[in-house]
User: Fold Adenine deaminase from Sandarakinorhabdus glacialis.
Amino acid sequence: MMRDFVAGLPKAELHLHIEGSLEPEMLFALAERNGVAIPFATVDDVRAAYDFSNLQDFLDIYYQGMGVLLTEQDFYDLTAAYLARAAADNVRHVEIFFDPQGHTARGVAFGTVIGGITRALDDAAITSRLIMCFLRHLSEDEAEATLDEALPYLARIDGVGLDSSEAGHPPAKFARVFARARGLGLKLVAHAGEEGPADYVIEALDVLDVDRIDHGNRALEDEGLVARLVDEGVCLTVCPLSNLKLCVVEEMGLHPLRVMLDHGLKVTVNSDDPAYFGGYVNANYVAVAEALGLGRADLAVLARNSFEGAFLGAEERARYL
Ligand code: ADE
Ligand code: ZN
Assistant:
């Protein structure tokens, strides 16, 4: 069965926002533990609210949800729960995004956030990287200030990314701060072509010099760009259930993943914000496999791509590839 084959494949997950792994049950538990009011009476009420028409609908609820995260232990518990869930899906390596500005703006210290996350990463059996994202609806100066705050913790931060509301916030807005991050030895990624145009993917490559593109769906609108992404072997971290829930695709049968594979793009399958989009990594593989008729060979390519696109050292590469 397809489900068993997917479950048996060792995988890496390269596009996962740790705050997006906050399950409704933990949302309630932390709200109670911390005395934070939430506008829901039951877990079912919460799930009913996860009905999105676009990225911004989701982001509004996502930023509200992370308001229950206050202490180092909260960030530990959140991360430990995700890592256990990922391990159950036979994920061997994870590259986790976090949104420090979503926490520091609420008065939670940068050190509290990174302390809890890294303590959970250190306790886990699977290997990991940590990627700090800048919120693109905020200014570049605010991203610069966030990078300043991260300086004492750079030994624990492997890369920077760019997330939040894409339309109207092109990658070039963050040219300076990405150049500084590069100078600090950090890997660079950016969400591009989720809702924004193919030109944002080009800007992420040309202006930010990113090592991977997160999503990249709309790159398919530009033939020349597709040829370049294939030629340069740029990894795309695609998120099928996210795309469906945020109406980036109308139905899973119309998801571009098969076309991407057929072009020879280095695509990977990831869960993005699994607590909000209805499935962890294996559920994402199964959803596209069923809707697009992907076979075992395709699924094995996707899993292999996930390790090839990862920021692995030589010893880890040898272990996984
Ligand atoms: N933040 C969390 N998930 C995101 C997504 N899919 N796109 C942009 N920003 C995000
Ligand atoms: Zn994302």
Remarks:
- The first helix runs from residue 2 to 8.
- The mean pLDDT is 98.
- The domain at 2-310 is CATH 3.20.20.140 (TIM Barrel).
